[in-house]
């Protein structure tokens, strides 16, 4: 989870800078795309993606591959939904690149940071102090 939080903070900075540049270049701004909203969405997305990555590490042989495919598919689906259902003209021009900025940050940073964040050690079972019983010999 810490890896997701760190990735989310980095993604939030990148997404907010991207939104600022796109708003200036396109001469458009939208009230929904403000820094608290973008930051919250980036952090939540990256924290959730870190849980997905953790599960993929446990249950698959190629977690990074499946993480990348799933992340790009999710960002693409989310962008498609925004493009189809955007209430304001031009909203998707600014919002959709942000999905891929956050996805790219998560796809790069979560796998890199996850091994660097140690897991708490699980207690190991104590070895038996008495030997097993001898088989009956007749």
What does this structure look like?
The structure is a single chain. The chain has 138 residues and is mainly α. Helices cover 70% and strands 0% of the residues. It has helices at 2-26, 35-59, 63-85, 91-113. Helix 1 crosses helix 2, helix 1 (2-26) packs antiparallel against helix 4 (91-113) and helix 2 packs antiparallel against helix 3 (63-85). The longest helix has 25 residues, at 2-26. It is elongated and about 95 Å long.
Structural class: mainly alpha
Count of DSSP H/I helices: 4
- The CA-CA distance between the termini, in Å, is 60 Å
Low-pLDDT stretches: none
Proportion of strand residues = under 5%
Which outline best applies? elongated
Topology order in helix (H) and strand (E) letters: HHHH
Q: What does the largest sheet look like? A: none
Rg result: 23 Å
Strand tally is 0
Tell me the number of structural domains: 1
- The proportion of residues forming helix, as a percent range, comes to 55-70%
The pLDDT mean sits at 90
